[in-house]
Design a protein that fits this description.
The protein has 134 residues and is mainly β. The chain contains no helices and eight strands.
Amino acid sequence: MTTSYSYHCSRCGAMLNPGGIISLVAERNGKRTLIGFPPEPGNYILYTPPRTAFNHGDTYDFLCPVCHADLISRRHRNLCELTLYEDGIRKTVLFSRVAGERATYVLKDDETRPSRHGEHHDKYNDDTIDIDVG
């Protein structure tokens, strides 16, 4: 059975992956580019326009391509937040805004401990992610 992932802006609710790939705007120092991510949590392939480089360790702002809201999470300043419906179940996805940092967290609304993905998932733990903010 194939898992169904539907990602939405945590601010306006717009669907961000109608064709499968999650589309977001990345911004740093006033420069913006459209980027894509696979929908599976923990898959760190990045789809970018040709000759687009992300410098390891740089922090980027991620924006909704529909409402242009900054997706930074209130739970931690180095994480962005999206809403995910996985097989119809509503979840919150947090992912690092730091280039090269592979850290993703998926939290169901009724859970207090997120599932963790990526080789740097231990950088942000239950003490540094405010999981009680709704």
